[in-house]
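As the next step, I selected for study a record pairing a protein sequence with its backbone structure tokens, which the following lines show:
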Amino acid sequence: MSLPFFVYGTLRPGEPNHALLLHGRTHTEEPGRLADAVLYDGPGYPYAVAEPDGGTVTGDLVTVPPHAYAELLTALDQLEEYAPGAPHNLYERVAREVTRAADGTRVRAWVYLAAPRVAARLRARGTRIEGGDWLARRDPPHDRTRTAQQ
């Protein structure tokens, strides 16, 4: 299933893993929001944790050209240390509804959420990022709507 990706941490434009993996390889990047989730600070990167009736996580909805999709999906799974069904995953890649900030439309996208054992640990003793925006923890908001150069 070829879905866009919702990125909320180090894969966002201007962040180190965006430069490493996404810069110049995306079709579009636009602000979006993931409902019913909260954000926790990890060791240099965040974790989104699903929380029914929870908060909202701010990020970017990234679309990828079809010719680059399989390679990029593999690269992102490796970065997030995700393997389908693996018991020691840090993240699980799941399809979730994401709201486009520009017009409020909803789209299904891949999201890397904290794996169940990680989510339980974060709920018990993690540091929550208030407001759900990884970038706002240190930077003022700015316009981040872009179309990548092909």
Notes: The chain has a mean pLDDT of 90. The chain has three helices and nine strands.
